[in-house]
Design a protein that fits this description.
EC number: 2.4.1.-
Structural class: alpha/beta
Pfam families: UDPGT
Shape: globular
Protein name: Glycosyltransferase
Family: Belongs to the UDP-glycosyltransferase family.
GO molecular function: quercetin 3-O-glucosyltransferase activity; quercetin 7-O-glucosyltransferase activity
Low-confidence stretches: 474-482
Amino acid sequence: MPAAAVHVLVFPAPAQGHINGMMHFATGLAGAGLHVTFLHTDHSLRRLGGCASAVASPRLRFVSVPDGLPDDHARTVGDIVELLESLRTKGSVAYRSLLTSLVRARDGDDGFPPVTCVVADGTMPFATDVAEEMGIPSLVFRTASACSALAYMSIPRLIELDEMPFPVNGDLDEPVRGVPGMESFLRRRDLPSHLRGCTESSNDPILQVLIEITANSRRARAVVINTAVSLEASALAHIATHVRDVFAIGPLHAMSPAPAEATSLWRADDGTVAWLDGHADRSVVYVSLGSLTIISQEQFAEFLSGLVAAGYAFLWVLRPDMVGASQSAALREAVTAVGNSKARVVEWAPQRDVLRHRAVGCFLTHTGWNSTVEAAVEGVPMVCWPFFSDQQINSRFVGAVWRTGLDMKDVCDGAVVERMVREVMESDAIRASAQALARKVRQDVTHGGSSAVEFERLVRFIKELSMTDKPDKHNSSYSMAE
């Protein structure tokens, strides 16, 4: 089947980190000659406004479906389970209807052929299930690291080895042997937080979501991961034994970048790069705890005191909702009181531009996977304070495997922040490791590199699926869906 006749629906979960990676993926598919429809929720597309159209391609378009929540719903990190459940129940009805119309579209409608394949976020199993029920071949895209995916896939083995559940108040530094390839360095505290004190039959709602996500990956036609062999070769090899096929095609932002304004749900500060221009090489600490992290006023105070004591200028991305909207103005004043030349606080920043800027010498981060691979590509050393479920294992890789930074884990203490920032800014060994890893990752994404070759294989795979499993427009399931 010619590339022009292949039409892929790409459907990310409506969260910043998920939209980010899958937007780069969609850009890459369009660049390979495939037609791509990128499916947002109505809420996300409204937040992007006209910026989504910044991706200029006649083969890439944007549509949306409701997520099922009221327009005034906050959709905060604490609402993730509710949001995913709303999408699964209410949103899936609109999703099925949209798929029906896209499959039934006449060749050439709006310049797009009928949809022939779906690539959906792994956190939304309903999206691939609905597509397969309708006869549309579908793939799973995992936006987290391969090592975190492998940890979830290892739950049965962890239980069999009596390594789960472990007591909530037990020794978190106890070694864990049940995740293959990580026996020499993995500790209890490095496992995704929702595995602590839980069993496979636990009623923990997020754990139940994660178990279903893992099951969905196992039954999918293939799993796509935004990673590279140089970063996670062992984890990828072990994942391959659990799934039908796996494609390591990242870091996508370095191979097929989409414009920052098309991927961000926040408006980036226009003066960030100019402020960095006024600082010496490797003299600034970049602080960003991601799009979901919520910290307390006490944690904010510890971070601020540690950064000030370290003595370096710092750029801090501080969302209005990160510490509570009622406190954000006062907290921003506390940061700017340090002095405009020594500190800058912004609501959002063009992170890729920041990390590649010559002035940035250290990245204090929540170790979200997008942030981790962006730092890896640029060779920027990291200080890691993991926040969400699967990011503990990312920070362990930074500190113990790649040795490209230091791992704070669940400690939030000003003295620790000060010590780690100073060590990372001043350590030639850490910087050398970060730069060596960057050279390897960049080779992966260049022509002939492992990720570039895997992306080409994925495009061929999608074309073959689109040819052999082309959905029947007259299948009775479509009538039932309307």
